[in-house]
């Protein structure tokens, strides 16, 4: 079947009417092109959305205290309460499967603007009181100096790590940042590091650089927070999802603050893992749509190839009759027609893949030449698995396209074929 004569015959058959062959193969080329481009576009959008999360630990949730919505043990509904530092240790002790439980306090943002002053310059920025592990939950690139450590926390050092946007606002280009001081609500902090972020956790990249991090203990003492915790960032380990563990976390809080176990409004939360899974599900659906549309377009091309092969079989009736008379078996005839169909389909499909690759290369080259950090479309591409799937589709499509013409070919009787003009 794979002899040189067989291949010469296939090439001669396909090139006998090259314009017809070209027009027929365009349908398959276009179908594969559309399939690859749609899948790559979906991947580019997915990469852009993930870039917006800035590398955050997505198996996380953020939790804060809200007013109760039910009366409980003689206490009225609508009662306000605050998280305490003891809640952090209680959660760690009673809920298995957690990796980080980080208490946080904040000035600025939803808590109201704060004044940050340095010399004659001032600005309004978000200031966070944090533990060192927050950098594992909200990754950032330390561009100079260092981040907070346990000694800063233990000794309540008045040190701060500032974002690049804070630096550009509060400092001139030639000024040394490390070792200098900024004043937050009248309290001096020494700058020990600067950072940048690639994303804002789904928010603005620019706003993500306008933040200042100080030790949690220092924040509590400097701004009279006592043992109050404004909110928490909680991350589960790799063997658990935070979505499955958060009810246990809520139960610990409700028990410690005398809240009705059925009060679902008393503890506010944002489940990043759940939201991230929704986005992942969306891209799965987009890929399914891409395959559906691409295969439908490809199917129209396959139908065209099948029709052309029927015409080819009709034109070669005499040839088939002669070959049958000389002893060619039905299997040989069928194999020849199927091989011609598969070769035409694969050549057309590979041309479509090459064309799509060139288009994606051009798009990525353009994206590389501009700042894509704020874009929702990054690095559109397909992996080798998609190419393998495309090749399998092509082979199967080629077989389907040639099946009916091949069956028609072997039904031709030698006597009738030789009689046909």
TrEMBL record:
It holds the Pfam family FtsX. The chain crosses the membrane at residues 21-41, 288-313, 342-363, 383-404. It is found in: Cell membrane. Residues 21-249 form the MacB-like periplasmic core domain. Residues 292-414 form the ABC3 transporter permease C-terminal domain. Coiled coil: none annotated. It is a multi-pass membrane protein. Signal peptide: none annotated. Keywords: Cell membrane, Membrane, Transmembrane, Transmembrane helix. Belongs to the ABC-4 integral membrane protein family. This is ABC transporter permease.
